[in-house]
Design a protein that fits this description.
The complex is a heterodimer of chains A (83) and B (360). Chain A is of the alpha+beta class. Chain A is built from one helix and five strands. Chain A has a five-stranded antiparallel beta sheet, with no helix packed on it. The relative contact order of chain A is 0.17. Chain B is of the alpha/beta class and 360 residues long. Chain B has one domain: 3-Layer(aba) Sandwich (Rossmann fold), CATH 3.40.50.11740. In chain B, strands 4-3-5-6-11-10 form a six-stranded mixed beta sheet, with helices on both faces. Classes of the chains: A alpha+beta (83), B alpha/beta (360).
Chain lengths: 83, 360
């Protein structure tokens, strides 16, 4: 299943020569391989699939999407006020 | 939770739905490719909230569902070997093979274990040098980086008691096959967010151009899905057909280069059989020649097993979007998650299981 819950990296460590992390998914803690996002640091968010972090979460883009959604919502509210 | 609850805001979702109702006038049919998106759509009742003319067809993006029956029978044959520790993601254990499933043979004494990551299977092989550890490597482009890494690490560690039973499928050839079908009804696609997190979305651009079909890379939360649907419908209403990225917080056009490189190092593209659909050219990943020693089919001599599907199950038509699960005569009666006839009722990503859970 595509688990879309972003995980926050709590700790980075090495196991058998592979970069691993302890990840917090909204309170549930598990481990994931970080080898495909070597640039990630403790405190940053990533998307994990079947035990592997497949990408970092781009916090700027996440914020920009929410701003855009809010803008659309405000436009709709303004349109409704005029009808 | 940060980066999650914001995308489930009911007020924003209501505004977005109003926007869709105001903007969209035509009748359109979209397909969400990913089974995770199918479940999210049904969980939040989104298909019922869209304008009347909008139809969502559920695509084949459920790895458990499209794993061919004969791969399951091969898994069962391998797992019965007394020296084997057979490892798999949990979803595969209850999928029916021709006569039984992995859970039943585990109950009968075979050593079948659920793992969370293929690296756990590698660790088992390290800890049990006198046993053969086999991992059931199924999935789309999302699980391929992990399975490739498992083979790479097993080789680095010099493990000769680790192998993969591979059944890997790729999304773009499946989309092409759907569009090539003479009775295709799909006019726009929501592309699977996590597949694109790995592979990027550049592979979809020639498909959008050739078939003149909009493709929107979409996430999994209600606001993601509504935005993806809205963008796709707006393209259809204005006669456009490009690839758009709704899921920018996770997906870039190029994807994860390191993961793609490791996949290419270990696997090569080849023809692949999809359960209920048939063989799609160039739609699978197979171990490269240099890594064939990790191929469980060769190691356990099961390459010749071939089997036929149960006649009653319509999962093949469901996977192609040609039938809705609740139009099957067996749905909810002879077929349920407890007693499934086919994989689409077993998997947490299967369309039949989603209808059973949220619609029955």
């Amino acid at each position: 299943m595509c688990l879309a819950i972003p995980g926050k990296v709590l700790e980075i460590y090495d196991e058998n020569g592979i970069k691993m992390g302890r990840i917090d998914y909204a309170g549930a803690i598990n481990h994931a391989c970080l080898e495909y996002i070597p640039e990630i640091e403790v405190g940053q968010y990533c998307i994990v699939h079947a035990g592997f972090a497949i990408n970092m979460l781009n916090e700027e883009e996440a914020q920009a999407a929410l701003v855009e959604l809010q803008r659309l919502s405000d436009i709709i509210a303004a349109e409704d006020d005029h009808t | 939770m940060k980066f999650l609850s914001e995308y489930r805001d009911p007020k924003l979702a209501e505004s977005y739905l109003n926007r869709i109702h105001k903007d969209i006038r035509g009748s359109w049919t979209l397909m969400e490719v990913c089974g995770g998106q199918t479940h999210a759509l049904l969980k939040y009742c989104i298909p019922d909230l869209l304008p009347d003319g909008i139809r969502l067809i559920h695509g084949p993006g459920c790895p458990v569902c499209v794993t061919p029956l004969e791969q399951l029978d091969k898994a069962l044959a391998i797992a019965r070997h007394p020296e084997v520790i057979f490892t798999s993601f949990g979803d595969m254990l209850r999928v029916p093979g021709s006569t039984t499933d992995l859970l039943q043979i585990k109950a009968a004494g075979s050593d079948v274990r659920i793992v969370y990551s293929p690296l756990e299977a590698v660790r088992l092989a390290q800890e049990n040098p006198d046993r053969e550890v086999v991992f059931f490597a199924v999935g789309f482009e999302t699980t391929a980086p992990g399975n490739a890494m498992a083979v790479f690490q097993a080789q680095q560690l010099g493990l000769s008691n680790f192998s993969l039973l591979v059944s890997h499928v790729l999304v773009p050839p499946a989309i092409t096959a759907i569009l090539d079908a003479p009775d295709n009804q799909v006019q726009g696609f929501l592309a699977a967010g996590h597949v694109c997190a790995v592979m990027g979305f550049w592979e979809y651009e020639p498909i959008a151009e050739k078939y003149q079909v909009p493709i929107v890379v979409t996430g999994f939360e209600p606001l993601d899905l509504l935005a993806g649907i809205h963008h796709c419908l707006q393209q259809l209403e204005t006669g456009q057909y490009s690839v758009e990225n709704q899921y920018k917080r996770t997906v870039s056009r190029e994807g994860n280069a390191a993961a793609q490189q490791r996949i290419r190092d270990i696997f090569e593209v080849g023809d692949q059989k999809w359960r209920g659909i048939g063989t799609i050219p160039g739609s699978g990943l197979h171990l490269r020649e240099a890594y064939r020693s990790f191929d469980a089919e060769i190691r356990f001599e099961v390459t010749d097993i071939s089997t036929a599907e149960d006649g009653e199950c319509i999962s093949g038509l469901v996977l192609q979007g040609k039938r809705r699960p609740d139009t099957c005569p067996a749905f909810g009666t002879r077929c349920s998650p407890e007693h499934p006839l086919g994989a689409t009722m077993v998997s947490t990503e299967g369309a039949c299981a989603a209808y059973y859970r949220y619609r029955k």
